[in-house]
Amino acid sequence: MTPEGGRLLPMASPEASESQPIFDRIGIVGIRLIGGSVALAVRQRWPACLVIGVDDKGVLEVAQRMHAVDVSADDLAMLSDAQLIVLAGSIQDNFGVLKLLDEYVNETALITDVTSSPGIDVSLAAGIPHRFSYISGKLSVNEVNGGIVQARADLFSGREWFLTPGRVNSNEIVDKMSQFVSELGAIPKIVDSLTNKNKKV
Fold it and tell me: Which spans in the chain are helix H?
């Protein structure tokens, strides 16, 4: 990572694809098994994407050694220019972060959470500013309790990733999130929050 003109740049990754990233700057709050795996998958897929990690300092030190993130801090201010913000903590932690994002994030970001808990809950979007879009996410993975050292880029390969739009400002946002999930190797499934029925992506 080298500042150029005051801007942070992503680290090079020898295994990364040369495809254009869907989101140029991705912030991940909670760099444990799920969040860390998202970070590794993004780094492997898109070398031009800047991955910002927010967690405890001890966790972030390991994430940096694993080259899972480009920049990291235990401060939400690091998310100021993120285009996609992935909340990878517990539901309670995610809710707490959501209440603070308006103070720290300058972009009209898309916010999503990643959880393996049963049921679809889009109530987290209530009360966040309308400049943000929010899509709830649920992963069909069994490995949920590990730490950053268990994270791997292929964790989502062939797994269903359920997406429930809680509030989106355009249909294009849902399409971009579906493409993002697909590019990470998962199978995106759009789920209606009222009927919980799958829709074709």
Answer: 33-45, 57-65, 91-98, 101-104, 171-183
**118 secondary structure, DSSP code:** S
The pair of three-digit structure tokens given for residue 8, joined into one six-digit string: 């942070």
Asked whether 168 and 134 are in contact (CB, 8 A), the reply is yes
Do 78 and 50 meet the contact criterion of CB atoms below 8 Å apart?
no
Which residue type occupies 88? A
Q: Any idea which fold 25-199 has?
A: Rossmann fold (3.40.50)
Model pLDDT for residues 20-41, shown as the tens digit of each residue: 899 999 999 999 999 999 999 9
Question: Domain coordinates of the chain in residue numbers?
Answer: 25-199
Distance CA 131, CA 166 (A): 13
CA distances from 7 to 3, 40, 71 (A): 5, 22, 12
- Rounded-to-integer distance, Cα 103 and Cα 92, Å: 19
How far lies 155's CA from each of 40, 45, 79, 143, 170, in Å? 10, 13, 25, 9, 29
In terms of phi and psi (left: phi > 0; alpha: psi -120 to 50; beta: otherwise), the region of 6 is left
Residues in the chain: 201
Give me the phi and psi of 26, to 5 degrees please.
-120, 125
Q: What is the pTM of this model?
A: 0.85
pLDDT digits (tens, 9 = 90+) for 52-101: 999 999 999 999 999 999 999 999 999 999 999 999 988 888 888 988 99
Backbone angles phi, psi at 60, to 5 degrees: -70, -30
